[in-house]
Specification:
Length: 283
Amino acid sequence: MENISVSVTSLFFFFIFFSLTKIQEVTSLSPDGQALLSLATSSPSLLSSWNPSTSTPCSWKGITCSPQSRVISLSIPDTFLNLTSLPPQLSSLTMLQLLNLSSTNLSGSIPPSFGQLSHLQLLDLSSNSLTGSIPNELGNLSSLQFLFLNSNRLTGTIPQQLSNLTSLEVLCLQDNLFNGSIPSQLGSLKSLQQFRIGGNPFLTGELPSQLGLLTNLTTFGAAATSLSGSIPSTFGNLVNLQTLALYDTEISGSIPSELGLCSELRNLYLHMNNLTGSIPHEL
Protein backbone atom coordinates (compact mmCIF):
# COMPACT_ATOMS: atom_id res chain seq x y z
CA MET A 1 0.00 0.00 0.00
CA GLU A 2 2.89 2.35 0.82
CA ASN A 3 4.42 1.75 -2.62
CA ILE A 4 1.11 2.62 -4.30
CA SER A 5 0.93 5.84 -2.27
CA VAL A 6 4.47 6.77 -3.31
CA SER A 7 3.63 6.07 -6.97
CA VAL A 8 0.50 8.26 -6.86
CA THR A 9 2.47 11.04 -5.18
CA SER A 10 5.22 10.79 -7.79
CA LEU A 11 2.66 10.87 -10.59
CA PHE A 12 1.04 13.96 -9.06
CA PHE A 13 4.34 15.83 -8.87
CA PHE A 14 5.23 14.76 -12.41
CA PHE A 15 1.91 16.18 -13.65
CA ILE A 16 2.52 19.43 -11.79
CA PHE A 17 6.04 19.66 -13.24
CA PHE A 18 4.78 18.95 -16.78
CA SER A 19 2.05 21.58 -16.47
CA LEU A 20 4.44 24.21 -15.15
CA THR A 21 6.86 23.42 -17.97
CA LYS A 22 4.14 24.02 -20.57
CA ILE A 23 3.09 27.25 -18.89
CA GLN A 24 6.74 28.32 -18.84
CA GLU A 25 7.01 27.58 -22.59
CA VAL A 26 4.06 29.84 -23.45
CA THR A 27 4.99 32.61 -21.03
CA SER A 28 8.56 32.69 -22.39
CA LEU A 29 7.07 33.54 -25.78
CA SER A 30 7.23 37.22 -26.73
CA PRO A 31 4.07 39.36 -26.34
CA ASP A 32 3.68 39.44 -30.14
CA GLY A 33 3.72 35.65 -30.19
CA GLN A 34 1.16 35.39 -27.42
CA ALA A 35 -1.12 37.79 -29.32
CA LEU A 36 -0.84 35.63 -32.43
CA LEU A 37 -1.85 32.50 -30.53
CA SER A 38 -5.33 34.03 -30.14
CA LEU A 39 -5.83 33.18 -33.84
CA ALA A 40 -4.94 29.52 -33.44
CA THR A 41 -7.50 28.52 -30.81
CA SER A 42 -9.86 26.96 -33.38
CA SER A 43 -7.30 25.94 -35.99
CA PRO A 44 -5.33 22.78 -35.11
CA SER A 45 -3.49 22.91 -38.43
CA LEU A 46 -2.24 26.42 -37.71
CA LEU A 47 -1.32 25.57 -34.11
CA SER A 48 0.72 22.61 -35.31
CA SER A 49 2.93 24.96 -37.34
CA TRP A 50 3.11 27.65 -34.63
CA ASN A 51 5.39 26.41 -31.86
CA PRO A 52 4.65 28.28 -28.59
CA SER A 53 7.90 27.00 -27.05
CA THR A 54 9.95 29.37 -29.22
CA SER A 55 10.94 32.74 -27.81
CA THR A 56 9.57 34.64 -30.82
CA PRO A 57 7.08 33.78 -33.58
CA CYS A 58 9.50 34.85 -36.31
CA SER A 59 9.91 31.30 -37.71
CA TRP A 60 6.16 30.59 -37.74
CA LYS A 61 4.28 30.04 -40.97
CA GLY A 62 2.93 33.31 -42.42
CA ILE A 63 4.90 35.52 -40.02
CA THR A 64 7.61 38.05 -40.89
CA CYS A 65 9.56 39.93 -38.24
CA SER A 66 11.71 43.02 -38.09
CA PRO A 67 15.41 42.80 -37.10
CA GLN A 68 14.17 43.57 -33.58
CA SER A 69 11.95 40.43 -33.67
CA ARG A 70 8.74 42.42 -33.80
CA VAL A 71 5.98 41.03 -36.04
CA ILE A 72 5.59 43.23 -39.12
CA SER A 73 3.60 40.87 -41.37
CA LEU A 74 0.83 38.36 -40.67
CA SER A 75 -0.29 36.70 -43.89
CA ILE A 76 -2.24 33.45 -43.67
CA PRO A 77 -4.89 33.65 -46.43
CA ASP A 78 -6.94 30.53 -47.20
CA THR A 79 -6.31 29.15 -43.71
CA PHE A 80 -9.30 27.61 -41.94
CA LEU A 81 -9.42 29.67 -38.74
CA ASN A 82 -13.16 29.23 -38.09
CA LEU A 83 -13.26 32.14 -35.63
CA THR A 84 -16.54 33.76 -34.58
CA SER A 85 -14.73 37.03 -33.86
CA LEU A 86 -11.49 38.75 -34.74
CA PRO A 87 -9.27 38.62 -31.64
CA PRO A 88 -8.72 42.16 -30.30
CA GLN A 89 -5.32 40.94 -29.06
CA LEU A 90 -4.04 41.48 -32.61
CA SER A 91 -4.19 45.21 -31.90
CA SER A 92 -1.14 44.80 -29.68
CA LEU A 93 0.97 44.00 -32.77
CA THR A 94 1.88 47.67 -32.91
CA MET A 95 4.60 47.31 -35.57
CA LEU A 96 2.37 45.37 -37.98
CA GLN A 97 2.58 46.58 -41.58
CA LEU A 98 0.65 43.83 -43.38
CA LEU A 99 -2.39 41.89 -42.16
CA ASN A 100 -3.90 39.39 -44.59
CA LEU A 101 -6.67 37.17 -43.24
CA SER A 102 -8.62 36.78 -46.48
CA SER A 103 -10.64 33.58 -46.97
CA THR A 104 -10.09 32.31 -43.44
CA ASN A 105 -13.73 31.65 -42.46
CA LEU A 106 -13.95 34.63 -40.11
CA SER A 107 -17.22 35.99 -38.76
CA GLY A 108 -18.14 38.68 -36.26
CA SER A 109 -17.24 42.35 -36.53
CA ILE A 110 -14.05 44.29 -37.20
CA PRO A 111 -12.60 45.41 -33.83
CA PRO A 112 -12.38 49.22 -33.48
CA SER A 113 -9.01 48.63 -31.81
CA PHE A 114 -7.57 47.79 -35.24
CA GLY A 115 -7.41 51.55 -35.65
CA GLN A 116 -4.39 51.46 -33.32
CA LEU A 117 -2.23 49.63 -35.89
CA SER A 118 -0.58 52.87 -36.95
CA HIS A 119 2.08 51.25 -39.17
CA LEU A 120 -0.38 49.14 -41.14
CA GLN A 121 0.00 49.48 -44.91
CA LEU A 122 -2.21 46.60 -46.07
CA LEU A 123 -5.38 45.25 -44.46
CA ASP A 124 -7.08 42.36 -46.24
CA LEU A 125 -10.13 40.82 -44.57
CA SER A 126 -11.87 39.95 -47.82
CA SER A 127 -13.91 36.83 -48.62
CA ASN A 128 -15.09 36.08 -45.10
CA SER A 129 -18.42 36.37 -43.28
CA LEU A 130 -17.75 39.55 -41.34
CA THR A 131 -20.78 41.52 -40.18
CA GLY A 132 -21.44 44.88 -38.59
CA SER A 133 -20.14 48.21 -39.82
CA ILE A 134 -16.69 49.51 -40.70
CA PRO A 135 -15.30 51.07 -37.50
CA ASN A 136 -14.68 54.81 -37.78
CA GLU A 137 -11.35 54.12 -36.10
CA LEU A 138 -9.95 52.63 -39.32
CA GLY A 139 -9.67 56.23 -40.45
CA ASN A 140 -6.72 56.54 -38.05
CA LEU A 141 -4.55 54.21 -40.16
CA SER A 142 -2.58 57.01 -41.78
CA SER A 143 -0.05 54.64 -43.41
CA LEU A 144 -2.67 52.39 -45.03
CA GLN A 145 -2.27 51.92 -48.78
CA PHE A 146 -4.47 48.89 -49.48
CA LEU A 147 -7.85 48.14 -47.86
CA PHE A 148 -9.71 45.00 -48.92
CA LEU A 149 -13.03 44.44 -47.12
CA ASN A 150 -14.89 43.05 -50.12
CA SER A 151 -17.00 39.90 -50.20
CA ASN A 152 -18.31 39.96 -46.63
CA ARG A 153 -21.66 40.80 -45.02
CA LEU A 154 -20.75 44.25 -43.76
CA THR A 155 -23.59 46.70 -43.20
CA GLY A 156 -24.11 50.31 -42.22
CA THR A 157 -22.80 53.36 -44.00
CA ILE A 158 -19.31 53.91 -45.40
CA PRO A 159 -17.51 56.05 -42.79
CA GLN A 160 -16.44 59.46 -44.01
CA GLN A 161 -13.40 58.97 -41.74
CA LEU A 162 -11.90 56.82 -44.51
CA SER A 163 -11.14 60.11 -46.23
CA ASN A 164 -8.29 60.51 -43.70
CA LEU A 165 -6.43 57.64 -45.39
CA THR A 166 -4.44 59.95 -47.64
CA SER A 167 -1.95 57.20 -48.62
CA LEU A 168 -4.69 54.83 -49.78
CA GLU A 169 -4.20 53.42 -53.29
CA VAL A 170 -6.77 50.59 -53.38
CA LEU A 171 -10.19 50.62 -51.70
CA CYS A 172 -12.27 47.48 -52.25
CA LEU A 173 -15.67 47.45 -50.55
CA GLN A 174 -17.63 45.54 -53.18
CA ASP A 175 -20.07 42.69 -52.54
CA ASN A 176 -21.32 43.67 -49.09
CA LEU A 177 -24.57 45.06 -47.70
CA PHE A 178 -23.69 48.72 -47.17
CA ASN A 179 -26.44 51.32 -47.21
CA GLY A 180 -26.50 55.09 -47.37
CA SER A 181 -24.48 56.97 -49.97
CA ILE A 182 -20.87 57.32 -51.05
CA PRO A 183 -19.29 60.00 -48.82
CA SER A 184 -18.26 63.02 -50.87
CA GLN A 185 -15.22 63.37 -48.57
CA LEU A 186 -13.62 60.39 -50.36
CA GLY A 187 -12.76 62.82 -53.13
CA SER A 188 -9.77 63.83 -51.00
CA LEU A 189 -8.06 60.44 -51.50
CA LYS A 190 -5.71 61.80 -54.16
CA SER A 191 -3.51 58.66 -54.17
CA LEU A 192 -6.44 56.32 -54.88
CA GLN A 193 -6.03 54.16 -57.99
CA GLN A 194 -8.78 51.57 -57.55
CA PHE A 195 -12.18 52.17 -55.96
CA ARG A 196 -14.63 49.27 -56.04
CA ILE A 197 -18.01 49.65 -54.37
CA GLY A 198 -20.26 47.54 -56.64
CA GLY A 199 -22.44 44.67 -55.52
CA ASN A 200 -23.96 46.65 -52.63
CA PRO A 201 -27.66 46.60 -53.54
CA PHE A 202 -28.69 48.97 -50.73
CA LEU A 203 -26.18 51.69 -51.59
CA THR A 204 -28.20 54.75 -52.63
CA GLY A 205 -27.78 58.44 -53.42
CA GLU A 206 -25.93 60.14 -56.23
CA LEU A 207 -22.36 59.79 -57.39
CA PRO A 208 -20.48 62.62 -55.64
CA SER A 209 -19.00 65.11 -58.09
CA GLN A 210 -15.95 65.24 -55.78
CA LEU A 211 -14.89 61.81 -57.10
CA GLY A 212 -13.71 63.72 -60.15
CA LEU A 213 -10.78 64.91 -58.01
CA LEU A 214 -9.33 61.39 -57.94
CA THR A 215 -7.04 62.00 -60.88
CA ASN A 216 -4.91 58.89 -60.22
CA LEU A 217 -7.94 56.60 -60.40
CA THR A 218 -7.63 53.78 -62.96
CA THR A 219 -10.67 51.71 -61.93
CA PHE A 220 -14.04 52.78 -60.55
CA GLY A 221 -16.73 50.15 -60.10
CA ALA A 222 -20.17 50.88 -58.69
CA ALA A 223 -22.29 48.36 -60.60
CA ALA A 224 -25.22 46.44 -59.10
CA THR A 225 -26.14 49.18 -56.62
CA SER A 226 -29.14 51.47 -56.14
CA LEU A 227 -27.19 54.62 -56.97
CA SER A 228 -29.26 57.23 -58.79
CA GLY A 229 -28.88 60.67 -60.31
CA SER A 230 -26.62 61.47 -63.21
CA ILE A 231 -23.01 60.72 -64.05
CA PRO A 232 -21.03 63.79 -62.89
CA SER A 233 -19.37 65.76 -65.64
CA THR A 234 -16.35 66.01 -63.33
CA PHE A 235 -15.57 62.39 -64.23
CA GLY A 236 -13.98 63.87 -67.32
CA ASN A 237 -11.08 64.89 -65.05
CA LEU A 238 -10.19 61.24 -64.45
CA VAL A 239 -7.45 61.25 -67.06
CA ASN A 240 -5.97 57.93 -65.88
CA LEU A 241 -9.27 56.06 -65.75
CA GLN A 242 -9.18 52.75 -67.63
CA THR A 243 -12.35 51.02 -66.39
CA LEU A 244 -15.67 52.63 -65.46
CA ALA A 245 -18.37 50.13 -64.43
CA LEU A 246 -21.74 51.70 -63.62
CA TYR A 247 -24.13 49.08 -64.99
CA ASP A 248 -27.26 47.77 -63.24
CA THR A 249 -28.00 50.91 -61.20
CA GLU A 250 -30.71 53.59 -61.12
CA ILE A 251 -28.48 56.19 -62.80
CA SER A 252 -30.37 58.44 -65.22
CA GLY A 253 -29.83 61.45 -67.44
CA SER A 254 -27.44 61.59 -70.37
CA ILE A 255 -23.86 60.39 -70.76
CA PRO A 256 -21.67 63.46 -70.17
CA SER A 257 -19.58 64.35 -73.19
CA GLU A 258 -16.72 65.04 -70.78
CA LEU A 259 -16.09 61.29 -70.54
CA GLY A 260 -14.41 61.72 -73.90
CA LEU A 261 -11.58 63.44 -72.04
CA CYS A 262 -10.72 60.18 -70.28
CA SER A 263 -8.04 59.32 -72.82
CA GLU A 264 -6.99 56.09 -71.05
CA LEU A 265 -10.52 54.67 -70.84
CA ARG A 266 -10.61 51.11 -72.14
CA ASN A 267 -13.71 49.57 -70.52
CA LEU A 268 -16.97 51.48 -70.20
CA TYR A 269 -19.98 49.61 -68.80
CA LEU A 270 -23.19 51.64 -68.67
CA HIS A 271 -25.84 49.04 -69.54
CA MET A 272 -28.97 48.25 -67.46
CA ASN A 273 -29.57 51.84 -66.34
CA ASN A 274 -32.09 54.63 -66.94
CA LEU A 275 -29.80 56.67 -69.16
CA THR A 276 -31.34 58.75 -71.93
CA GLY A 277 -30.21 61.01 -74.73
CA SER A 278 -27.74 60.30 -77.47
CA ILE A 279 -24.34 58.67 -77.23
CA PRO A 280 -21.77 61.50 -77.23
CA HIS A 281 -19.57 61.49 -80.31
CA GLU A 282 -16.69 62.48 -77.99
CA LEU A 283 -16.53 58.87 -76.84
